[in-house]
Amino acid sequence: MRCQRFILTIGLLLAPALHAATFSVSSAADSGNNTLRWAITQANATPAADTIVFNIGGGGARNIALASALPAITAPLSIDGGTQPGYTNAPLIQIDGRAAGAGIDGIGQQFGARALSIIGFTASGVLIDGPGGNTVTLCHVGLNGGGGALGNGHTGVYIRSSPNNQIGPGNVISANAVDGVRIDLAAATGNAVFGNRIGTDINGSGAIANGFNGVVITAANNNRIGGSTPTDLNIISGNTRNGVGIAAGASGNLIARNYIGLAVDGNAAVSNGEDGVLIVDAPANKVGGDIAGTFNIIAAQGRQGCPTAGAGHRRYADRGR
């Protein structure tokens, strides 16, 4: 027995530790060494939570034009566009899916995306439909780094059957063909969308519409749009249809501290084309918080501010104009 314990102890000491690796992208090419495709493949080969950083061409704005889908991410991975030299507050690394093929999504699964521009994919810019806990921050989804519209062919950020993801702060999600953000199906619970501009330009002062809605929650429970602090504030304005839609039995969702139909100053109109918050066949959702500072300001919609067709909703301290 002592011998067995000794052998086990030695084996544990000699076992390789899981060390996170950092992979540097120095080429904007579609494939080959030191490209984004190469870095994802390398990171997938390690079980640790790795990081991809950028130093392409010594700095400045760079476009990575993809000829096909990126590899699926199979291990935890952070892709940090803010490491590109010269980065201040607008993405310099643009992941361009315009030539990637039909039905292709941008980034998804087991990742953190920071300071990237994700444009031109024929499906969604970001698709999260597996393990939860993913983050998207400081990204332009549907806009280039300078704020020009290059939308994705479906939804900007699509969370499908995935829990506990954080979308925000600091994203601009606009110009996408369908919805800005979509949260869908029963397993999509505990997600938070906060501190973003959805349907507006990068300044939050004018419309660059998503083709349908700003944010949609369908058949998903207990998600949060906005929150209770100043940094949670979403600007959900300028979208072709509704600012926020909740439907298909979704319940327990919170919509609080958002400007819906207004610019970042809370005064100028940037109207959504139809309703501010539309709730249809979705019981017991909450629009506005029950403590000071968590109200929504819902104004300047094409139709109504917050019509409902369902039971058990609660509205607190919302202000409409």
Percent helix range: under 10%
Provide the structure class: mainly beta
Strand content: 25-35%
Compute the CA-based radius of gyration.
21 Å
- Terminus-to-terminus distance: 78 Å
Helix/strand order? HEHEEEEEEEEEEEEEEEEEEEEEEEEEEE
Q: How do the strands line up in the largest sheet?
A: 1-2-4-6-9-12-15-18-21-24-27
The main sheet comes to: 11 strands, parallel
Low-confidence stretches: 1-17, 309-318
Instruction: Tell me the overall shape.
Output: globular
Contiguous helical run count: 2
Name the average pLDDT: 90
According to DSSP, the number of beta strands is 28
Explain what the structure shows.
- The protein has 2 helices and 28 strands.
- By secondary structure, the chain is mainly β.
- It has a domain of 143 residues.
- The strands form 3 sheets. It has an 11-stranded parallel beta sheet with strand order 1-2-4-6-9-12-15-18-21-24-27, with helices on one face.
- Helix 2 links the parallel strand 1 and strand 2.
- The longest helix is centred in the first third of the chain and has 13 residues.
- It is globular and about 55 Å long.
Quickly list its features.
single chain, 321 residues, mainly beta, ten-stranded parallel sheet, 2 helices, 28 strands, 27% strand, globular
